[in-house]
Write a structure and sequence with these properties.
Elements: H1 5-43, H2 54-63, E1 69-70, H3 72-82, H4 90-102, E2 106-110, E3 119-122
Antiparallel strand pairs: 1-3, 2-3
């Protein structure tokens, strides 16, 4: 049984290229987050006293992001820069942002799945539908009426 080394090399190159592409995408997201933090720091150079709860802190940060897209990582970086004494874990912040979205203070633009984060935007009063969802919404048609029991 002969092993085709050229095929193995090509497969390894394809895996390498895919991994490099993923790393580059993550790097670009990090650069965007850092640039956003720079802009926000320039707009609000004086740090506020740390609010009492994570939700209050997140609400203040999200309130300054009107019209901007953000993820949990973006808000976490801003919180850590603005409120260095505030202790939290990213999964806890993720739940907090989800509650803010449920309460109408932010809207979900892209529902996250796996390693892809949920993308939010500060709710400015206009309604926006999800761009993509892990579970697409299914609307019943007139033919799908339930029979009474």
């Amino acid at each position: 049984m002969a092993i085709n080394l050229d095929v193995l090399i090509e497969q390894a190159k394809l895996r390498r290229d895919a991994a490099l592409k993923a790393v580059e995408a993550e790097f670009q997201e990090t650069v965007k987050s850092v640039e956003l933090i720079r802009r926000l720091a320039a707009e609000d150079p004086m740090p506020d006293p740390t609010p009492a709860t994570l939700k209050e802190s997140a609400r203040k940060v999200v309130g300054g992001l009107v019209g901007r897209e953000f993820t949990v990582l973006t808000v976490a970086e801003i919180l850590r820069a603005r409120y260095p004494d505030l202790q939290f874990e990213n999964p806890t912040l993720s739940g907090t942002l989800a509650r803010l979205a449920e309460e109408g203070e932010a809207e979900v633009l892209l529902l996250g799945a796996g390693r892809r984060p949920t993308v939010y935007r500060r709710n400015d009063g206009s309604e926006t539908k999800l761009k993509e969802s892990a579970e697409p919404e299914v609307k019943p048609s007139a033919d799908d009426e339930e029979a009474p029991f």
